Amino acid sequence: MLTDERHQRILASLEENDIITIAELLDPLEASESTIRRDLQHLENQGLLIRIHGGAKKKQQLNFEANMSEKQGKHHEEKLLIGKYAAELIKPNDVVYIDAGTSTMAMIPFIDANLNIKVVTNSVKHAALLVEKEIDTVILGGSIKLSTNAITGFSTAQQLQQFRFNKAFMGMNGAHLENGFTTPDPEEAMIKKLAIAQSQMVFALLDASKLQQTAFTHVADLSQAEIITSKCPKDLLKKLQLQTRITEV
Fold first, then answer.
1. Residue 33 and residue 75 in one domain
2. Does residue 184 contact residue 173 with C-beta atoms inside 8 Å?
């Protein structure tokens, strides 16, 4: 296989998986470990990836956010498991905030429609799915962000300040030991901060690919929300547990 073709395959693998190991690349690239290490070094020098021990990870763009359709295709099974676990935390008569995002959207099929709950959301798609299940739903007003269908802005914040929640289920783009919870958009970050402040219990739903990732805008410290995630490395799990409660599903 030609060098350029190997490089393209490595970058394509990172688009799908965020993190890849050298062991995972050996067979598809039909190359030796030393050759793949040189390929990763070259691509890092070009600013196209970041090498890590035993492999590489996608280079982050702090202010970039994929649209909903792109996000839904990634880590789908993990999001379903996270969503199912989160939905089971909702109890009869709860007043719940469900944040915009694909991880929180994965909750909705698993929510028991007979719990007599009220749900507030800043997502057009979430609201439609909740209404289909005949769940009492309040959708916040404001400007719709086309890429994520999240509703943000001054009027959104004004409305949100009037409400109080038993539980909030939040989407985040990153959860980092030093940088806390982050998201690319400052306006979305403001809405997330308000929802967290208005809630008795807060759960951050994010698959393990978002752990130790950082986006542009700080939302909250790790101690402000329990993390529900997919399987993560044991050493990272122990460090996270020093700052917050974390549940693997």
1. no
2. yes
Structural domain includes residue 63: no
Q: Is-contact 125 109, C-beta < 8 A?
A: no
Q: How far apart are CA 16 and CA 78, in angstroms?
A: 14
Same domain, residue pair 119 and 221: yes
For the chain, report the end-to-end CA distance as a whole number of angstroms. Answer: 39
Spatial CA neighbour of 122 closest among 170, 75, 90: 170
- Kindly state whether residues 34 and 129 are assigned to the same domain: no
From the list 27, 22, 13, the residue with the least C-alpha distance to 41 is 22
Q: Are residues 73 and 11 in the same domain?
A: no
* Residue range of the domain that includes 76: 68-248
pTM, rounded to two decimals = 0.75
Q: Residue 50's domain is classified under what CATH number?
A: 1.10.10.10
Could you tell me if 206 and 144 are in contact, meaning their C-beta atoms sit under 8 angstroms apart?
A: no
pLDDT at 204 over 90: yes
Give the rounded percent of residues in the chain with a pLDDT score beyond 90. 71
DSSP string, 118-133: EEEESBHHHHHHHHHT
